[in-house]
Amino acid sequence: MNNPIITERLDRLRQVMRENGVDWYLVPTADFHHSEYVDGYFKVREYLSNFSGSNGSLIVGPSQAGLWTDGRYFIQAAQELEGTGIKLYRMQEEGVPTLEAYLAKQMREGETLGFDGRVVDTRLGQRLEKALQKKKIRFSCDRDLADAVWTNRPPLPCHPVIVLDEKICGETVEEKLKRVRKKMEELGAAGHFLSRLDDLMWLFNIRGRDVACNPVALSYAWITKTECHLFLQKEEMTDALYAHADRYGIVLHEYWETADFLSACPIEGKILCDAGQISYAFYRLLTNRAGLILSQNPTERMKAVKNPVEIAHMREVYEKDSAIVCQFLCWVKKNIGRLPMTELSAGRYLDDLRRSAQGFWDLSFPTICAYGPNAAMMHYEADETHNSALKDEGLLLVDSGGQYLGGTTDVTRTIALGRISQKMKAHYTAVATGMLRLMNARFLFGCSGRNLDILARQPLWEQNMDYKCGTGHGVGYMLNVHEGPQSIRWRFAKDAPEAEIEAGMVVTDEPGVYLEGEYGIRIENVLLAVNGEKNGDGQFMHFETLTYVPIDRDAIDPSLMRQEDIALLNRYHALVREKITPYLDREQAEWLARATRPI
After folding, report:
1. Are 474 and 438 in contact (CB under 8 A)?
2. What pLDDT score does 73 carry?
3. Residue 244 C-alpha from the chain's centroid
4. Beta strand 219-224 with 189-194: parallel, antiparallel or unpaired?
5. pLDDT tens figures, 161-206
6. Bridge-partner residues for 408, per DSSP?
7. What is residue 495's predicted lDDT score, i.e. its pLDDT?
8. Pair 71, 247: CB distance under 8 Å
9. What is the distance between the alpha carbons of residues 370 and 388, in angstroms, rounded to a whole number?
10. Helix residue spans in 473-585 (DSSP H)
11. Cα separation of 424 and 413, whole Å?
12. Closest by Cα among 500, 488, 508 to 447
């Protein structure tokens, strides 16, 4: 079936390309700060392709177009690209070229590649430079050509900044700046340009509302040994922010003045910036002014290691949020087949439970409530046109989370709504076993997620199965639900950092099974890394779970589990009963007791 809306938009883009002397045009999924999730103003790739996932890059040529995305979105992308004429390139699959390799093959010598240099990060820009150098490809990166195509484009987001009470942060801005400047000195940097939004929010103990579900404000910072400059939209600056900035000697500037400021400010040495976060446009600007030190933002790792105050608040928030999920599961199990229920209505019931909780700010991402085949799409989101009715059979996957004063949550449970097949039980049992094994890992300091990933995947690998995504990601503190640098995965991109897991880091544990056209299964807990015994062999570590929600016994086949894995499940369920029962009413507590009874 043809998609005339998308083909018309691509035709208009090609016309604008010709008018501007551009032969090929690249559209990534990013804002000016290379955030994972972006506001509507920046969803250019979705507007031009119809693909709505959070990761993907569109390349438009004179007569062809392709979209690159990762394994989380293969099924979704294939559906959403149908009829657009855009070819899907499944990243990291055998025989699939990278987008830079594709351009190097397809573009003719001397042609021009266009892109908005503000939304392409430096790492990608450098890869393009290297791949296209031999063909003498020119770059046109100072214009957003899509702006001439996109009618009724949403406005740039702008909301007042929130200044946090530093008692809940556990560290003052002064203390954080001191640590950043110490790291700058170690790296030999005279200045540091910071453009990553969650890092900026963490460093200055502020929050914003410029990206749905992500409490961030569009901003930049320039830091030297003695000065600190923060750039925000003028309308976002409040009296509380002015007082906060004055207290710590922070000079506030208008957001759109950043480039002019960096072009004129005194620079007496090298500049530190993160190639994965700074835009290609700012990279080119700064390389004309000074030498660059391309290194990970010091704030990223500092932010990832939660301090004692943050950890205490997160433990409290996760207990309360787990209780909300338990209340929801009890409601579903009790009412499925008795009350009319859809993906949307069930998801909204859970969202409303969270919204009524004390300290609730927002969802940490749109709730994924996916039934049957829809759950095979990892980031499926029901809407008015795609909304399956729930029946008292099959599997329901619910991935959800909240932003609270004191923490950011993320939890997934897949439950049996009634009769399920033995195949479903076998796959569910393997996923649950892998999740429990990783949750109970014992490891030495120095391990990264690459070392730990196999614990979650092994039960599936034994069945010659896998899931096309990482096993775990970092979680922010009243910030982005996805943060780094820590992650749990067996495969890392060549230019991506691979961080050691250290005490205070928070990471998810979420193996899964995704069978197109059949069902999806994911079970996710959030874990806190803590130090264990230290001896002559080194510093041993383990995880403390922050999530206390039952694993559905109705979907477990104990005959497929080893005795030690059954013991892990029973021990976890005893902990869930202990932690969550005080939050529940009598009926819910009785349900929880049945749901967590020992096998």
Report:
1. no
2. 87
3. 29
4. antiparallel
5. 999 999 999 999 999 999 999 999 999 999 999 999 999 999 999 9
6. 403
7. 64
8. no
9. 8
10. 563-580
11. 15
12. 500
For residue 509, list its beta bridge partners: 525
* Beta carbons of 495 and 123 less than 8 angstroms apart: yes
Q: In terms of Cα–Cα distance, which of 549, 502, 511, 552 is closest to 529? A: 502
Dihedral sign computed on CA atoms, order 194, 199, 200, 202:
negative
Quote the pLDDT of residue 386.
86
* CA–CA gap between residue 208 and residue 161 (Å, rounded): 5
What angle (nearest 5°) sits at the alpha carbon of residue 555, between those of residues 554 and 558?
A: 90
Residue 70 confidence (pLDDT): 85
The answer to whether residues 116 and 141 touch, using CB atoms and an 8 Å cutoff, is yes
Say how far apart CA 466 and CA 323 lie, in whole Å.
Answer: 31
Task: Specify the 3-state DSSP secondary structure of 466.
Answer: coil
Q: Which alpha helices (DSSP H) does 489-585 contain, by range?
A: 563-580
- Region class of 463: left (phi > 0), else alpha (psi between -120 and 50), else beta: alpha
Side by side, which strands form the sheet with 483-488?
A: 442-444, 538-545, 525-535, 506-509, 472-474, 483-488
- Would you say 175 and 320 are in contact if contact means Cβ atoms under 8 Å apart? no
Same fold, 162-302 and 305-595: no
Tell whether domain 305-595 is in CATH 3.90.230.10: yes
Q: What is the mean pLDDT of residues 202-228?
A: 96
Helix (H) or strand (E) holding 177: helix 173-187
Which of 278-282, 309-313, 455-459 is least confident?
Answer: 278-282
Nearest C-alpha neighbor of 262 from the set 271, 251, 250: 271
> Domain residue spans in the chain?
4-148, 162-302, 305-595
Distance CA 88, CA 97 (A): 11
**SS3 breakdown of the chain: % helix, strand, coil, rounded to 5?**
40, 25, 40
Q: Could you give the CA distance from residue 407 to residue 149 in angstroms, rounded to a whole number?
A: 40
Would you call 402 exposed, middle or buried from its count of C-beta atoms within 10 A (0-12, 13-18, 19+)?
buried
CATH code, residues 4-148: 3.40.350.10
DSSP class of 323: H
The structure tokens listed for 40 are 């509507």
- Judged against a pLDDT cut of 90, whether residue 564 lies above it is answered with yes
pLDDT tens digit string along 121-167?
Answer: 999 999 999 999 999 999 999 999 989 999 899 999 999 999 999 99
Tell which residue, 549, 419, 435, has the closest CA to residue 488. 435
Q: Which residue has the tokens 């207290």?
A: 247
Report CA-CA distances (Å) from 276 to 65, 531, 547: 25, 30, 31
Rounded CA separation 297/304 (Å): 12
- pLDDT score recorded for residue 593: 98
Rg, C-alpha atoms of the chain: 25
The CATH number that domain 162-302 falls under is 3.40.350.10
Six-digit token string for 362: 């927002």
What's the rounded Cα separation, in Å, for the pair 84 and 81? 5
Residue-wise pLDDT tens digits, 474-520: 999 999 999 999 999 998 876 667 899 999 999 999 999 999 999 99
Give the model's pLDDT for residue 71.
80
Query: Which residues are within 8 A (CB) of 536 and not within 5 positions of it... i.e. 6 or more apart?
Result: none
Q: Which long-range contacts (CB under 8 A, 24 or more apart) does 455-458 make?
A: 456/488, 456/509, 456/511, 457/490, 457/511, 458/434
Average pLDDT over the chain, rounded to an integer: 95
pLDDT at 1: 66
> How many residues are listed for the chain in this entry?
599
